[in-house]
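Budget justification aside, the reviewers requested a transparent look at the raw inputs and outputs of the sequence design task funded under Objective 1. We therefore reproduce one unedited record. The lines immediately below are the structure tokens for a 168-residue chain.
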């Protein structure tokens, strides 16, 4: 049983630096803890979160992310600290750091969502490859039909006076 629909979780997965990530604020909300508590647990267990599991966004990335999220900033000046983001592996590692029944259930739902997204992307890649292959075959077929429909020029018999030039 999923306590949160996959679509709700999927809408909180973004792409930054070519990685599918979740923002600390969204994860904290899903886990039912404060963002500062989540980040504090992550920092206390820093060895579990190498740079490919969790990283802090730059100001430019925050602006890019805000344009993806299309939500208002918190308070007057927005968040005071640059947010931390977690890759799929980082989210999995959070389950060992944020220990609660709700966090365990949410983590299962998040992992299932990442798997579904991977399946969808694989399906889309397969479809794109098949469409490209069909396009190539259609182009060859079209070229062949065009060649068949184009009649070769027939030599025309010349009309008019042909002078006698030594024929006997």
């Amino acid at each position: 049983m999923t306590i949160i629909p996959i679509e709700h979780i999927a809408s909180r997965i973004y792409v930054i630096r070519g990685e599918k990530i979740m923002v600390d604020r969204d994860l904290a909300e899903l886990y039912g803890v404060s963002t500062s508590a989540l980040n504090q647990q992550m920092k206390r267990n820093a060895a579990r979160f190498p740079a490919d599991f969790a990283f802090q966004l730059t100001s430019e990335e925050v602006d890019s992310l805000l344009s993806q999220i299309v939500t208002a900033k918190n308070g007057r000046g927005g968040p005071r600290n640059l947010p931390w983001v977690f890759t799929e592996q980082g989210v999995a590692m959070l389950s060992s750091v944020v220990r609660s029944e709700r966090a365990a259930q949410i983590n299962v739902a998040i992992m299932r969502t990442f798997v579904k997204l991977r399946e969808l992307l694989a399906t889309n890649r397969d479809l794109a490859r098949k469409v490209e292959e069909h396009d190539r075959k259609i182009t060859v077929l079209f070229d062949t039909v065009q060649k068949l429909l184009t009649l070769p020029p027939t030599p025309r018999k010349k009309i008019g006076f042909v002078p006698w030039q030594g024929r006997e």
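Residues 19 and 91 are 13 Å apart (CA to CA). The helical segments are 6-10, 24-31, 35-44, 59-69, 88-97, 101-149. Computational costs for records of this kind are itemized in the attached budget.
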